[in-house]
């Protein structure tokens, strides 16, 4: 299976039309059709459902699309890492994270400092859950992950960051609880709650005294972007981290009392060779948080 053919396949999948894809690729339509047929033969599976109007991917085709995107992305990144010329550092640094104080406050400073020294480097920022970030690190699709502790770090080298993320409740600014400086478990006993997986199984149970069975949890979530519209419509009170909230109009954050907080770590795969650009960024990060 050649990367060239995978690139052809991704173009067909995106355009949903062989003729249009062939025009974009600057090859003939019969040549492209033959390449796709040979790819199906090589994999011994049907990748396309063909109709008069368009081409749709089968279930196997959608799986190949995801794998092809990963392979092509990794190949392009590798090619860039080997195009360094002279003393000018070039390449791509891929960083995956959730939303946290570290990401909103520390990462921009690190990137700004780095680019002032190495303007030929490009960054790719990806947002996802901890499980997705670790999976992409293991596959080599990400160079660095920013994960909230606790994290199993046996497979990773890491830098522990001193900044902590504080948990609290997101609510409308005119809510009756908004006048309080902090929120206690008793305040939420009967209220509808929107809870992050990060807090539902561990911190919330401890904060509520060991049990969450009687809570009115109407929704759970992974990323804060999905939560804000629910809170705006007054469907529930959301457990969130303060660092995830910037410039929200009409909503307020109140910390939990007693405090619930987490620290974060920069992680990268152990024993996995990294390009010079990534190594320089890790060195910069280590020095920035040495104190």
Protein architecture, described:
The protein has 291 residues and is an alpha/beta fold. The protein is 40% helix and 25% strand. The strands form 2 sheets. Strands 3, 4, 5, 6, 7, 8, 9, 10 and 11 form a 9-stranded mixed β-sheet that branches. A two-stranded antiparallel ribbon has the order 1-2. Helix 1 packs across helix 2, helix 1 packs across helix 4 and helix 2 crosses helix 3. The mean pLDDT is 85.
Total of helices: 9
> What is the average per-residue confidence, as pLDDT, rounded to a whole number?
85
The strand count comes to: 11
The profile of the biggest β sheet is:
9 strands, mixed
Query: From the alpha-carbon coordinates, what is the Rg to the nearest angstrom?
Result: 24 Å
Low-confidence stretches: none
Oligomer: single chain
Gross morphology: globular
Q: Helix/strand-derived class? A: alpha/beta
Q: Secondary-structure element sequence?
A: HHHEEHEHEHEEEHEHEEEH
Rounded to the nearest angstrom, the distance between the terminal CA atoms is 49 Å
Beta-strand portion reads 15-25%
Helix content: 25-40%
Précis, in short:
By secondary structure, the protein is of the alpha/beta class. The protein has helices at residues 3-15, 18-25, 29-43, 59-81, 101-117, 130-139, 197-207, 228-232, 276-288; strands at residues 48-50, 55-57, 91-97, 121-127, 144-148, 156-172, 192-196, 216-221, 237-241, 251-255, 261-269.
Q: Any descriptors?
A:
291 residues; alpha/beta; nine-stranded mixed beta sheet; two-stranded antiparallel ribbon; 9 helices; 11 strands
Topology:
Blueprint: H1 3-15, H2 18-25, H3 29-43, E1 48-50, E2 55-57, H4 59-81, E3 91-97, H5 101-117, E4 121-127, H6 130-139, E5 144-148, E6 156-172, E7 192-196, H7 197-207, E8 216-221, H8 228-232, E9 237-241, E10 251-255, E11 261-269, H9 276-288
Parallel strand pairs: 3-4, 3-5, 7-8, 7-9
Antiparallel strand pairs: 1-2, 5-11, 6-9, 6-10, 6-11
């Amino acid at each position: 299976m050649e990367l060239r053919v995978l690139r052809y396949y991704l173009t067909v999948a995106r355009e949903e039309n062989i003729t249009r894809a062939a025009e974009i690729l600057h090859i003939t339509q019969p040549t492209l059709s033959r390449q796709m047929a040979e790819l199906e033969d090589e994999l011994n599976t049907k990748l396309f459902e063909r109709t008069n109007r368009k081409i749709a991917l089968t279930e196997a085709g959608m799986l190949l699309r995801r794998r092809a995107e990963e392979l092509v992305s990794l190949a392009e990144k590798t090619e860039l890492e080997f195009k360094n010329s002279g003393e000018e550092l070039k390449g791509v640094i891929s960083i995956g994270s959730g939303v946290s104080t570290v990401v909103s406050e520390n990462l921009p400073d690190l990137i700004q400092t780095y680019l002032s020294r190495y303007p030929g480097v490009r960054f790719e920022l990806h947002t996802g859950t901890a499980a997705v970030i670790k999976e992409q690190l293991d596959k080599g699709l990400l160079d660095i992950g920013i994960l909230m502790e606790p994290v199993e770090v046996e497979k990773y080298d890491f830098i522990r960051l001193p900044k902590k993320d504080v948990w609290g409740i997101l609510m409308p600014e005119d809510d009756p609880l908004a006048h309080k400086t902090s929120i206690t478990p008793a305040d939420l006993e009967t209220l509808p709650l929107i809870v992050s997986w990060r807090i539902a199984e561990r911190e919330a149970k401890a904060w509520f005294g060991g049990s969450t069975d009687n809570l009115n949890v109407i929704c759970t979530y992974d990323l804060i972007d999905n939560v804000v519209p629910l809170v705006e419509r007054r469907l529930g009170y959301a457990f969130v981290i303060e660092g995830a909230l910037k410039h929200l109009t009409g909503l307020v954050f109140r910390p939990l009392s007693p405090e619930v907080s987490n620290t974060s770590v920069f992680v990268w795969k152990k024993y996995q060779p990294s390009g010079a650009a990534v190594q320089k960024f890790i060195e910069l990060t280590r020095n920035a948080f040495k104190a």
